[in-house]
Write a sequence for this structure.
């Protein structure tokens, strides 16, 4: 085959000349223009048999090469590490009431005080929560029921007022009082790690997150769970089951909401938490579903899945079922199936 003046032609071997001369459809017996009106049958009959065979062989080689082309490997995505505290010690905590603003809910006005919770000498990932006067008052009453008032020194809790709750001077006075109150609690381990203060820091948000999980509104649950994790990790460290449980909830919801990179970043923390809580029965409920999800996330993000698969193999060797089990999200949802829903929306 040659190209002449922009037209492709097929040169016919001389041994087939006689057949072409007998064919009236060919004007020039020495060459055939494939752009002419010559029928396909005429060209195929005129071409030597070995030429057709060679074309078939080439096509076969191309198909074979296409079959051998490997599928592209997943692109490795850089996972940003999430900073956490030393799991071996509980960090010193400080609180700051940063703002206060009047808001309305259910047709009633109230003041929301925004609290920032941080480790001393560490400003990374501060936890932010909003609380009302009644929330602070409940904590104060719990302390008085458990301890002598002297546990708070000379602190005077701001009194309720019937009129003027929304005046600037009242809000400012309460803001300063609540700031002092929270840091007095932080200075006392008995108060800081009490059940009622733990509830004060995260119960409202967790109740709302659980409601979203039950409704399968996973994207709405994610920011709440992220903040709860920040609070609990600062207060208790990842050696606490309460931190691990909210981590599993967060990872499951992030994955369900399509936030795979964030989910995997939290998986790297959860692995350490599982190691610290090895043998704890409550943690074992989450372990296999977590490892299976972490392995899938690692593969999807181009990360090494070997550490997770190795742990799965170790569990299988111990006789623990690792296939046909519930997903991490299913385990999380079943955990709260009998809890009444409650959302702020």
């Amino acid at each position: 085959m040659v190209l002449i003046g922009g037209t492709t032609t097929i040169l016919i071997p001389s041994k087939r000349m006689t057949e072409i001369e007998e064919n009236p459809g060919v004007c020039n017996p020495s060459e055939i223009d494939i752009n002419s009106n010559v029928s396909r049958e005429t060209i195929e009959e005129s071409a030597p048999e070995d030429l057709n065979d060679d074309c078939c062989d080439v096509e076969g080689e191309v198909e074979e090469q296409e079959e051998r082309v490997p599928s592209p490997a997943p692109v490795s995505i850089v996972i940003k590490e999430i900073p956490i505290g030393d799991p071996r010690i509980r960090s010193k905590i400080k609180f700051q009431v940063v703002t206060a603003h009047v808001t309305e809910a259910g047709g009633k006005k109230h003041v929301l005080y925004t609290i920032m919770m941080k480790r001393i000498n560490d400003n990374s990932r501060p936890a932010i929560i909003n609380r009302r006067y009644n929330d602070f008052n409940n904590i104060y009453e719990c302390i008085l029921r458990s301890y002598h008032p002297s546990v708070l020194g000379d602190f005077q809790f701001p009194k309720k007022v019937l009129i003027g709750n929304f005046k600037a001077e009242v809000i400012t006075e309460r803001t300063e009082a609540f700031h002092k109150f929270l840091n007095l609690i932080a200075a006392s381990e008995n108060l800081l790690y009490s059940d009622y203060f733990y509830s004060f820091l995260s119960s409202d948000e967790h109740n709302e997150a659980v409601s979203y999980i039950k409704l399968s509104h996973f994207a709405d649950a994610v920011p709440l769970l992220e903040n709860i994790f920040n609070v609990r990790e600062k207060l208790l460290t990842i050696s606490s089951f309460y931190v691990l449980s909210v981590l599993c909830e967060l990872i499951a919801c992030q994955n369900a909401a399509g936030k795979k990179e964030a989910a995997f970043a939290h998986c790297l923390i959860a692995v350490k938490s599982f190691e610290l809580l090895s043998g704890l029965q409550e943690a074992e409920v989450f372990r296999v579903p977590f490892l299976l999800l972490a392995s899938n996330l690692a593969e999807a993000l181009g990360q090494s899945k070997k550490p997770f698969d190795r742990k799965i193999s170790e569990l299988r060797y111990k006789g623990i079922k690792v296939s046909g089990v519930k997903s991490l999200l299913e385990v999380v949802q079943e955990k709260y199936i009998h809890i009444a829903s409650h959302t702020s929306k």
Remarks:
- Strands lie at 2-4, 7-11, 31-33, 93-105, 108-119, 122-131.
- The domain at 81-193 is CATH 3.30.1520.10 (PX Domain).
